């Protein structure tokens, strides 16, 4: 079977990665991923859906991200490997669940790269030049805009081509700038115009009801933004001390980002001129470059210029990060046994998985050609992200059950409570994403199954092998995830009209049903985990590495001349 790789095969490829990233660099990676294009557009998009209650949507989004991130922090510290997020489901449940989780995660992350390029070009369209205004038609990029965004994709690619150390140094510097500018923007807009009457205009604090707050969490770019917490985990193979640095980086990046995003949302809500809230209220706002347009409105031309510059720097910094992390994810998928061997190659000189970088560049071009607007990409990314999240809470507790002796540098006593709550949160956000979007993205998840089927069934058959007996436990262990996606799609279709459903399930009851289903599938998933070949091989590899580290430590302690 392709799922029974030997430890030596994986270790050989992974050994070319350089453990050069410390806590600061990893935190900068996480924060730099979170503060990308989301802060440029997220405030307006969230306000259009939820009105002033968008402030609460950012808080709810952070709470969801934090609970899920805690489960992945334990996993990332246990398995400090490149592309960590695409591996954990394979370790706990084998081939089928592992592949579905990896596919969802990869789709969610790789589509961010063209999204960041799109954001930069869309902001540029507000420049007072004819050629710039022709880049965006109000809904999506024009042909010229796509061409310019393509150039940015190539730039992200080359910034990752040469060395991980170059990426780390560049990203840390960019992240400092990316933090300073949003803080300065929020402060300047608050001082320029702070109209608290906006909270009561056009329907008050929740003009579209509380359901809109939840929908804003799912599709306005909030999940897109906080999803950046996983970037340090995907670079775990290059962390110097993953047991300590990964949890610090993940949690710190979410908390810092929450403060910044709430400040920006408040500043946006209060800075919008009252006369702009016409018949359509917050949903009627249509700024091409929301924060920059408000800066110009209140005479802050210097801030507008700074924002136009940062519209290149912030998304480009995030695009660079995701170009780096997705290449490690492709490497992880290959080592799971579901891609050709060439994508597992790491350049010995630079420590960069260059074939994986090339593949992601091609896929990024495809996404850019199909989804030319930031909003449409944000929706796809957000729902795919939530689907990828559900394996973390299940895998972390499943591995505690089937592999209790694995060394856990991070082990929270409250995890038995945190994990099921994280699963419930993830299920609710998936439902909040609204039908038919939820159905479309779940269908996109199914589109990846032929690749899995080729490597697990087709390829063994062409080699004269009969894979069915070996595949059976993988199918049994992964059944919970397949059924979960089908059930969630059905509930989304039949659910409340406020979430795009047919209204067959009463309002309020639908949320209780989704929460109960999330909990039920959590327990099914935890109980269905098994000691599959990938987990056994990885345990052996980690034990060998620990023995080698201990031997090296003894040598360091030996007296001179011994």
Short description:
This protein has helices at residues 7-14, 23-34, 38-50, 54-78, 88-93, 95-110, 112-124, 130-133, 143-161, 164-192, 210-219, 222-226, 231-234, 242-271, 290-297, 301-335, 354-370, 374-389, 391-402, 415-432, 437-446, 449-462, 468-494, 509-528, 533-557. With 562 residues, it is mostly helical.
Largest sheet: none
Rg measurement, Å = 23 Å
CATH class of one domain equals Mainly Alpha
> What is the straight-line distance between the termini?
47 Å
Number of helical runs? 25
Mean pLDDT, all residues: 82
Low-confidence stretches: 1-16
Oligomerization status of the protein chains: single chain
Secondary structure: helix percent: over 70%
Protein name: Amino acid:proton symporter
Pfam families: AA_permease_2
Keywords: Membrane, Transmembrane, Transmembrane helix
Membrane topology: Multi-pass membrane protein
List keywords for this structure.
562 residues, disordered N terminus, 25 helices, transmembrane transporter activity, single chain, AA_Transporter_AGT, mainly alpha, AA/rel_permease1, membrane, transmembrane, Amino acid/polyamine transporter I, globular
Write the layout of secondary structure elements.
Blueprint: H1 7-14, H2 23-34, H3 38-50, H4 54-78, H5 88-93, H6 95-110, H7 112-124, H8 130-133, H9 143-161, H10 164-192, H11 210-219, H12 222-226, H13 231-234, H14 242-271, H15 290-297, H16 301-335, H17 354-370, H18 374-389, H19 391-402, H20 415-432, H21 437-446, H22 449-462, H23 468-494, H24 509-528, H25 533-557
């Amino acid at each position: 079977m392709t799922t029974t790789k030997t430890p030596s095969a994986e270790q050989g490829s992974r050994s070319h990665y350089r453990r050069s990233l410390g806590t600061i660099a990893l935190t900068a990676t996480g924060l730099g991923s979170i503060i990308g294009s989301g802060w440029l557009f997220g405030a307006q998009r969230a306000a259009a859906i939820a009105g002033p209650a968008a402030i609460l949507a950012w808080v709810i989004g952070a709470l969801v991200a934090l609970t899920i991130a805690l489960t992945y922090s334990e996993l990332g510290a246990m398995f400090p490997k490149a592309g960590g997020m695409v591996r954990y489901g394979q370790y706990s449940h084998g081939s089928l669940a592992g592949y579905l989780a990896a596919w969802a995660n990869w789709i969610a992350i790789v589509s961010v790269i063209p999204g960041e390029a799109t954001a930069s070009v869309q902001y540029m369209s507000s420049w007072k030049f004819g050629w710039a205004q022709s880049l965006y038609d109000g809904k999506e990029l024009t042909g010229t805009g796509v061409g310019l965004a393509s150039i940015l994709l190539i730039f992200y690619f080359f910034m990752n081509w040469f060395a991980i150390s170059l990426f780390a140094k560049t990203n840390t510097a960019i992240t400092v700038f990316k933090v300073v500018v949003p803080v300065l923007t929020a402060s300047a807009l608050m001082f320029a115009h702070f109209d608290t009457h906006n909270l009561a205009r056009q329907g008050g604090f929740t003009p579209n009801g509380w359901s809109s707050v939840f929908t804003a969490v799912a599709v306005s770019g909030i999940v897109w933004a906080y999803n950046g917490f996983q970037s340090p985990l995907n670079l775990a193979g290059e962390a110097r001390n993953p047991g300590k640095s990964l949890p610090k980086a993940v949690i710190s990046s979410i908390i810092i980002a929450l403060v910044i995003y709430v400040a920006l949302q408040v500043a946006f809500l209060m800075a919008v001129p009252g006369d702009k809230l016409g018949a359509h209220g917050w949903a009627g706002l249509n700024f091409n470059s929301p924060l920059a347009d408000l800066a110009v409105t209140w005479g802050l031309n210097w801030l507008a210029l700074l924002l136009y510059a940062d519209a290149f720097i912030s998304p480009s910094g995030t695009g660079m990060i995701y170009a780096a992390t997705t290449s490690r994810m492709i490497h992880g998928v290959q080592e799971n046994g579901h891609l050709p061997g060439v994508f597992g190659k790491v350049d010995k000189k630079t420590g960069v998985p260059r074939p994986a970088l090339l593949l992601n560049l091609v896929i990024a071009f495809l996404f850019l050609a199909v989804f030319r607007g930031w909003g449409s990409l944000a929706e796809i990314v957000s729902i795919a992200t939530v689907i990828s999240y559900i394996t973390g809470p299940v895998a972390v507790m499943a591995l505690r059950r089937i592999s209790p002796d694995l060394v856990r540098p991070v082990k929270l006593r409250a995890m038995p409570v945190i994990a099921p709550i994280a699963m419930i949160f993830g299920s609710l956000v998936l439902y909040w994403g609204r039908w038919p979007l939820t159905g479309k993205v779940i269908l996109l998840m199914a589109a990846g199954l032929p690749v899995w089927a080729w490597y697990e069934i087709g390829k063994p058959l062409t080699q004269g092998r009969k894979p069915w007996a070996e595949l059976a436990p993988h199918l049994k262990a992964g059944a919970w995830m397949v059924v979960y996606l089908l059930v969630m799609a059905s509930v989304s279709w039949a659910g409340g009209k406020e979430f795009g459903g047919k209204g067959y399930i009463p309002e309020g009851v639908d949320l209780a049903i989704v929460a109960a289903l999330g909990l039920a599938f959590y327990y099914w998933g935890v109980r269905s985990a098994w000691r599959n070949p990938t987990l056994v091989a990885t345990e052996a590899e980690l034990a060998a590495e620990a023995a080698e580290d201990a031997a090296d430590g003894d040598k360091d302690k030996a007296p001179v001349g011994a």
